[in-house]
Amino acid sequence: xxxxxxxxxxxxxxxxxxxxxxxxxxIFFSQHNLSxxxxxxxxxxxxxxxxxxxxxxxxxxxxxxxxxxxxxxxxKFLDEAEIEPSTNQTYGSLLKNLTFIKTFASGIIVPKxxxxxxxxxxxxxxxxxxxxxxxxxxxxxxxxxxYNDVPFPFNYSYDPVSECLSYFDNGDFSxxxxxxxxxxxxxxxxxxxxxxxxxxxxxxxxxxxSRDGDSGNYPGCTDLAYMxxxxxxxxxxxxxxxxxxxxxxxxxxxxxxxxxxxxxxxxFNNYTMVVPEIKVGSGIxxxxxxxxxxxxxxxxxxxxxxxxxxxxNPRFKNAGTYLKLxxxxxxxxNSSSLSGVLIGIEYAAYLxxxxxxxxxxxxxTELKKAGFGNQIALDVMIQSSNSSxxxxxxxxxxxxxxxxxxxxxxxxxxxxxxxxxxxADAVVINKASVLPDNQLFVDGLTNVVNKFHGFxxxxxxxLFSNEFVSQAWDFFSDPSVEINSFVTGAEVDGVxxxxxxxxxxxxxxxxLSYKETPSYMSPVQPGSLIQVVSPAYLPPAExxxxxxxxxxxxxxxxxxxxxxxAPGPAGGSTVTPPRPNGQPKTAACFFLSTLxxxxxxxxxx
Length: 605
Description:
The chain is of the alpha/beta class. It contains 22 helices and 23 strands. The strands form six sheets. A nine-stranded mixed sheet has the order 9-21-20-17-16-15-14-10-11. Strands 1-2-3-6-7-8 form a six-stranded parallel sheet. It has a two-stranded antiparallel ribbon with strand order 4-5. A hairpin with a 5-residue loop joins strand 10 and strand 11. The radius of gyration is 29 Å and the shape is elongated.
């Protein structure tokens, strides 16, 4: 299917703007009576060769007088401890004699760690002087080893564009080129992202919304995560509100403290309980501890791809402190760069009915205290997967309401969208509801975004993470390519991300203002990659995602705190188990969870 091409084939069929030949193991070929020197000289008479590189001194010396003056000879450095066969010196020692290299080469290729050394725990050390030293010797410098799909230093936050920029947009030096298996990334980094103008205009879309602040680099919903998200250019700062036992609303990524703190290793580890309305299995929940108790816990960073050994910023895995909602609002209000805040509310029905905790009332009270009821500088967005929560805010406020659709959907019928329009101004949907994939091959583009846009509902998509395993193959293991495909290809209005710096930088890249879009800034065409997969290796076809139905959306009103704990006719709860759209929906008389707990108790007796 994919024939091996000769150098002549490449030159004739593709007519590349430049051709680089890299010659390895010349001594090996010589031992087998094959002359790589003669072959290269012969090829260079048939096609234009711009660069020839080799890690062997003798080979480059043997051709320097025979190739065209326009062909650049580049000496390739290998590992510093490795022996160069011609001189019998280590590459590390040759690095100290750049004037010698200049006698047979016009430039050098060095592994990226020659320039940016890395510590044993995978953080960058201060850069070396190799680039400036080589430039002083009259040598050009190319950095090699830039791959998108391998772990690189934590300083780059799993963002390959950030890694590329560190080699030519750092304020101290600039290499002359980079070698990468993913040329789309350095091409975009050079043309679109490097050396941005300070006062350049920024487009309105996409709206960059944080997920628990900068939770890709710090424990989510902590002061550090929020401050860094603001510094990185996030538009909307988010707070998922949880309630403590003493009715203090605060920001945390999860109602289950085991997910986000060290509570399991604390003196509160005996506070575990089973709440089937929230999750299967046991947890230690925020409503079981007072705020003073919660403050004693260390936050923990989320590492959703830890099964692939892709951890997040381990030096800061327990850094930062949690904020009360009031402190979060103060932080946001004092920021001059934010356009809004997003307040997430989940499990409201359970909290008010079973614990007498009205998270909706608490949020309204804190917003009013912070002056968000009458200010217009910052947008206030209330997000929930429960329509009953949003209906309550619609009745009592003028905040923007965002409906979160947690399941993957393949369609949004008009009647369902009309129902959503009654209580929401925008929706949050998953990536798979826009660009569904089959075993990480994008295989189509749904009409879901257009359906919501048709009813003037904004569409925000989640979750955009930087770890390459979180992205479909089509995006070349580059989160900026993924974001671009959703923004310019699917025309979403905003992106929700745990790495807001990546999305904020994308929004400011100058290629978005070009009249002609360069190829490396064009959106990925859905289904284009899977078409080149050999039939024997194609993944089996999958059924399309289901359509969002009215029953997934419509709910009875949220009960008030005053009446929630009053016993019903049969003493039952009005909280149902989770429905297709994530959180429990309010309904009449549900007693199965109580029955399940009773059965469990009988087995324990």
